[in-house]
Please model this.
Amino acid sequence: MIRSKLGSLMLWIILLAAAACTPQAAPPSQNTAPTQAVQAPAPTAVPAAQVTAQPVSGSKTLTVLAASSLAASFNELAKTFEAQNPGVKVTVSYAGSQQLAQQLSQGADADVFASASPKYIDAAVTAKRVTKADARTFVKNKLAVIYPKTNTAGLKELKDLARPGVKIDLADKSVPAGQYSLDFLDKAVKDPGFDPQFKDNVLKNVVSYEDNVKSVVTKVSLGEVDAGIVYVTDLTADVASKIDRLVIPDALNTVAVYPIAPISDSKNAGLAKAFVALVLSPDGQALMAKYGFIPAAGK
Model:
């Protein structure tokens, strides 16, 4: 009986050992192949047509207020400055110096002021728009009498301005050129070569007073008047074929002094100083001389 149980136990042990040694099949759901790395899709490129150009970060506008007699020369200076400073646009507003000074006193937004008289730079200083120490004389100018080439009034010399019936156009005395014209007449009556009534007789012939000197040039070139008094620099190429002039001698003339200054509260202070520096530079002075001005930087 005992042998029978022992035999059964030994047989059970043998069967268990055999089962443990038998290879087991891998579950059908398990993949035995090596794992492959998964690659992310390449980023999609933005088509060139969808790329928006960005504005130039340095794009700025420099506003210059300048006496009307500076128009031709400052137009060229503006182009020169723009070429030297990519992204900068120079806008020049021309008018009589008195008008520009008034605009500044009323808070006009500007960066540079170029006047045909120190009087109006001083007005800008009083209005706290310009610092006196920043103002510099950059050119000088002189007066001349102009008349149409048709010369229907038969003008031959300065004395002829006092002849009855001669129609004369002047800048208003509030305009630098207008005041300088009156100064010329004051000097003339003290000169032995002129009649003591010369000034009074000339003023009797004045048919209109203009708020800027360019308006005088226009009326004379169109033949609307017989004569006018302007700066020698106003005889520009565009009117040279229509106008002649009588020279006013230095003893009777007034040398007009032109100052320039950056506006003290300019939003483009660096550019304003750079523009003034260009005007005062040798290149700027040569350009002004080309238009008939007398260079005066540093004087």
User: Anything to note?
Assistant: The first helix runs from residue 2 to 21.
